[in-house]
Amino acid sequence: MMALPGGRHLDSVPLPGQRLHLMQVDSVQRWMEDLKLMTECECMCVLQAKPISLEEDAQGDLILAGGPGPGDPLQLLLKRGWVISTELRRIGQKLAQERWARVHSMSVRLTCHARSMVSEYSAVSRNSSQEMGQIEKLLMEKCSELSAVTERCLQVENEHVLTSMKACVSETLSTLGQHFGQLLELALTQEVQALVRKIDASDNIHTTESTTGNLFSLTQEGAPLCRIIAREGGVVALFKVCRQDSFRCLYPQALRTLASICCVEEGVHQLEKVDGVLCLADILTDDSHSEATRAEAAAVVAQVTSPHLPFTQHLSSFPESMEEIVTALVKLCQEASSGEVFLLASAALANITFLDTMACEMLLQLNAIRVLLEACGDKQRVDTPYTRDQIVTILANMSVLEQCASDIVQENGVQLIMGMLSEKPRSGTPAEVAACERVQQKAAVTLARLSRDPDVAREAVRLSCMSRLIELCRSPSERNSSDAVLVACLAALRRLAGVCPEGLQDSDFQQLVQPRLVDSFLLCSNMEESFV
Prior knowledge:
Helix content is 71%, strand content 0%.
């Protein structure tokens, strides 16, 4: 199985029926099929009378072990595409090192892979356009040109001549890469078009399920493929599925695919064109839909309202459905049966609070603070720093409202915020450590904003929040040396000290409160762990 960078596998997991089929295939026949792909590069070298490289890194040569299944053009394109793009990158590296023998042998192998991709795809593709045929011809011409010029470089000893030839090889390699990219995009576009047409025309639940699954697999290959899918009508076809009652059992799969496509601008634009926000609102507010369906709809809302993507800030159709969506999401948080469902619903709410300040007022009216703070005590719903990150984000954005402070005090929210200042990773993975830092930072920001209210400030002092903030400022390990957490804690400490200065020792006041913020920051950011 060929693995993509990031641990993603190109081979899909076979279904039980497929596994049985594979066991029944004659082992010699499978070996013969694999042998062709495993040996063709070596044969190519021998046929052209080129020795197989004995360099130490030759063991790292790419071999496509086990070709794609018969009649599976998508897997063929993805596998061959990954191998060729990797070879292009490695040739560039060897060229920079001026290892000419290696550059030439790899160029020959690249030609072999390119020829195999072209011939194999031609054998299984439905129809090839004239444009694709022209690019295939240009690609193979450049491959031959690269092999020829790198062979000439092996016979040249003059450094000045090699330098000029190196520039020529680099230009040829660049042009070859462009032709390969164009060919791969055309071929993938053709396959995506076929999948979209199949979904659009199908009234068979099994066909639609299989095709939607193929489309979802493609979205996992990255943003370029998501753009192709959006451009070729994938969003339109999937929303058509989500509007047919006969396909209700496929809604979660279709919505999950939509969430992936909407990581790119083209996907969000297509969603707007087909009134996708209204469709999502209908699904979220319809209790007859399963929790899984509503959770996947929440995931799409979270994606299209993400504050990290600039193009999600201009959803013209969102405000008119916002109240319905926010109400449904709060209800989903309240009734969530698992941590995953709660995470998706709370992430959507957190993003919406960035999108429109009116959302915070709606949440206040819906008693969302009580729902969120009660959930913090339920390990089945809130059990990771990622979920607490969403909750504290909502609280931080709501804390700009004056009424929010009294609601948080009534629900013992200050104590929960205090607990978030002590958020620690359990696994130590970079993602979890970063999530813990965000929780600490946002908890400190929330505390600083809420402490405008003297009642909140006094409650925070009573709960020893000042001691914890001082510890976070003075001890880099407590905040994982995060500057963002340090700044937020200094700001919160100064706000509390303004209301209850008696809670500070003189040394803390003189170092952390009295100086300019930047001076206290510099002092703490360069501080060894000490409480002197």
